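Much of our argument rests on the idea that a fold can be written as discrete symbols. Part of our work consisted of pairing the sequence of a single chain with a tokenised description of its backbone. We regard such an encoding as a compact summary of how the chain folds. The amino acid sequence and the backbone structure tokens for this protein are reproduced below.
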Amino acid sequence: MFNLAEILTLLIGCLLALVFIDGIRRAVRIRRSKLKVDLIDTSIQSSLDFEEEWQGYEEQEHKEVSSDEKLDEELDISHVVSLNIIHLNDEEQVFSESSISQALVFYNFRFEEKGFFTILDSDNSPTFSIINGKKPGIFSDNNTSNDIALVLDPSDLSNQMEAFELFVEVSQSLQETFQCRLLDEDRNLMTKQMIEHMKYEFHEHRRQFLASAG
């Protein structure tokens, strides 16, 4: 027969064995759970990385397409316009914001914040610009110049003929007001014949544009 001390020893040994076995089982269960969580996180992360990569590729592809389209637009000759330019030149520094404003008193115009004039037609639509012929091309701080340029871009005009007639009229009016020289875009002295030739070329460009559009 076992005595009391031996019985207590056996019971304690059994309890320790149970505690040890339970500890091993808990450790195995925790390890399995952790492994499962790690596997889920890894798959999610991979999916996120792929989505981010794909989004980045799509954005880059869109940028490349946009750049190509922009380049095509820049190279497309249909976008090239023929600007009409008339210079007014004087030996003295007679042109300024105030002097030009006074000379344009009978015309519809506005002085833009950027430092140049915009001439408006009968519908208050922009027709052409008057800029400083000297760099940087603007009037600011009451600066003066001996050269100005009238620039007409026919591509954005609703009434091209009215705009061109006004363009020539204003240039001749300013010439009379300031008693200055009227020059073409190459700064050659303009005669009445050259003005008529400019009108002819303008009509011809307009006719070709309408023919191609039709």
User: Anything to note?
Assistant: Confidence is low (pLDDT under 50) at residues 35-80.
